[in-house]
Design goal:
Elements: H1 6-16, H2 19-25, H3 30-37, H4 45-55, H5 62-66
Helix pairs in contact: 1-2, 2-3
Length: about 70
């Protein structure tokens, strides 16, 4: 099964090289980032806004990154 957040993961690598660097930028743990990307912990609205800002994702593209089937 394809990853639900494949495009989001690719954006993290594109902008920060890896999840560890992104976690530092977000002032959180790698575990928290991983759990969100594995759909074990849901994204809050606040998470989505912060991630979009850090990853330079246009708000018009939120659905493409966070709400794929």
């Amino acid at each position: 099964m394809a990853s639900k957040y494949l495009k989001l993961k690719a954006r993290i690598v594109e902008k920060y090289e890896n999840q560890a660097n992104f976690a530092r930028k977000m002032n959180t743990s790698e575990v928290t980032i991983s759990k969100k990307l594995c759909d074990k912990v849901p994204f809050t609205r606040n998470d989505i806004v912060k991630w979009c800002e850090a990853l330079e994702i246009n708000y018009d593209d939120i659905g493409v990154y966070f709400f794929t089937l």
